[in-house]
Amino acid sequence: MAKKEVRTDLWVYELLKQANIRLDPQGSSIKEIDDALKTASKKGTGNVGFPEFVGPVKDYLLLIEDKADLSRHIKRDAKGNISAEKGDIMDYAVNGAVFYGKHLANHTSYKKIIVFGISGDEKKHRITPVYIDETEYYRELPEVESFITFNADNIDEYYIREILKEHTDYEKETAAILKDAGILHEDLRNYGNLLDTEKPLVVSGILLALRESEYRNFSVDDLTGDVEKTDGQKIYDAIHTNLKRANVSPEVKKDKILRQFAFIRDTVKLNEVEPKLNKTPLRHFAEYLNEKIYKSIRYIRSAEDHIGRFYGEFMSYSGGDGQTLGIILTPKHITQLFCDLADLQPEDVVFDPCCGTAGFLIAAMYNMLERAENDAQKKSIRQKQLHGIEMRPNMFAIATTNMILRGDGKSNLINDDFFRQETSRLQLKQSTVGMMNPPYSQGSKQNPDLYEMSFAERLLNSLVTGARCIVIVPQSSMTGKTREEQALKENILKRHTLEGVISLNKDTFYGVGTIPCIAVFTAGEPHPADKICKFINFEQDGYKIAPHIGLIETESAKDKKQHLLDVWFDRIESDTKFCVKTTILPDDEWLHSFYYFDDSIPVEEDFIKTIGDYLTFQFSMIMQGREYLFQEEDNV
Q1: What's the pTM?
Q2: CATH code for 326-595?
Q3: CB 628: neighbour CB atoms within 10 A?
Q4: Most CB atoms within 10 A, among 327, 400, 442, 447?
Q5: How far does CA 339 lie from the centroid of its chain?
Q6: Count of CB atoms within 10 A of residue 59's CB?
Q7: How crowded is residue 97: how many other Cβ atoms within 10 Å of its Cβ?
Q8: What tens digit of pLDDT does each residue of 211-227 get?
Q9: C-alpha distances in angstroms, 149 versus 18, 146, 159?
Q10: Which of 580, 556, 559 lies closest to 568, judged by CA?
Q11: Digit-coded pLDDT (tens) for 189-246
């Protein structure tokens, strides 16, 4: 075997290892597969033939054939199909993989086989999956960057979405939740005559009240439309009790939250019997939430997850991604990406000074709890290791409620202005991770503190030395378009280190018109002049816009995210089209587009395409009577 082939095999082995997939190299430990390979020679002699890797994942059979040379990836016949010629099967990765896959489909009991033709190395490569069933029918699938979607946790979802082209149970459940949230949103408008800022407070307040039904302190049947003790008063009292049960303290904090729910008690329209409903609107809303949430959670693995998903979808539905609430809600896949980039550990302390609805803190809590080793550690995470600040009282109430509904145990949120807090005192929280989505487009020469990078600098100053700090801001923040923003970038590098910037999908904040990026820093360590930073183009993230729904995950999202993380943590190399590694200066534009250069070597296909484009252009001009463009001028 050639040395290059061995290097490719080792790289593929590492990819499998990272995805937690174990396949056998050069044969199989499973007798049925091993026996079938004894007659699988690619030369067609009926002798033994081994792909590079083969083995089962659940009831699927995975098989890999690789080549070191990218030009040996795939060969097609005159009709565009994968060539089945003997020479092509031997010389090309995809052709060989399909041959082995068909042979195993014909000689084993496996009915679902996914083969991979792989060529190249860790820096430049192609990975093409092909599905083959027991009839030897094959279908080419979109190319991938990793095997993450094919491990035991994800392969069923991949099969349903990409091969069967059906919706997964999770997607069906999400669609149902989104539909329920839409109906409730419409009812709140029709029967409550509520402002967009009040709708999520009604929902979160009723959800808190319903939690008290578990302790027999509240029941939907109690909402009778009584004029002496109104339905709103009963809900308000239940909210008060549940906040005490959740250990929300000090008293002034609990009072701030309760004041935000007072309109439920005091709004006459919510507490009067609505003739069309024959009940109060509050009773109608409570019945709906009880039916759609509390009566269904016994069928859901995690009640908190289900409640949280409904609440999150409702918040996204309300006012178009929360914009009428004065906020831009951070999508769930971005809050999770923050946790992955921070490599959160159960001992971390997380701080978000512009927490909005607490999306980052909730994502961090779930990630840390998954890694916790015992109940004492889980208790500490919930009660001591999640901190946030939110300036707007209504958002503060929503964030606190959101945390309680997710079971945080004790919500360590502060209702205050981040810029009124002393960074030296905030450092006493010993926060090891900072996460933030600051207010956008608020800064000016008159108010330089409101520039996004000013928020980033202040967050960095609030963390312990060596802490990881991750912020999502408009790409324009990285360019330093004003003198004040240039100065902010320079000041940041004097005290902190920029690790890199990731350019995101322009539709990440769908409907907002902001093109964002993620910047990652290390706090308290001045940026060395020779520091190598990463600048990544992650615009193709596997998410797309679906009509009437918004941004949705496609089958490639997990794979693309895994590739991003592998590159970020230096597990694999990448070409400069995806990632540029370079030193920086304060007045650089800290974006991939600023540093990128095309380092790929043209291949024969590029030459043929260029010549073809030129001949097409020439023919078009001649047909328009402009052949003179191609005539050489006579030398005088």
Answers
A1: 0.82
A2: 3.40.50.150
A3: 9
A4: 400
A5: 10
A6: 12
A7: 29
A8: 898 888 899 999 999 99
A9: 12, 8, 10
A10: 580
A11: 889 888 877 888 898 899 889 989 888 889 999 999 999 999 999 999 999 999 888 8
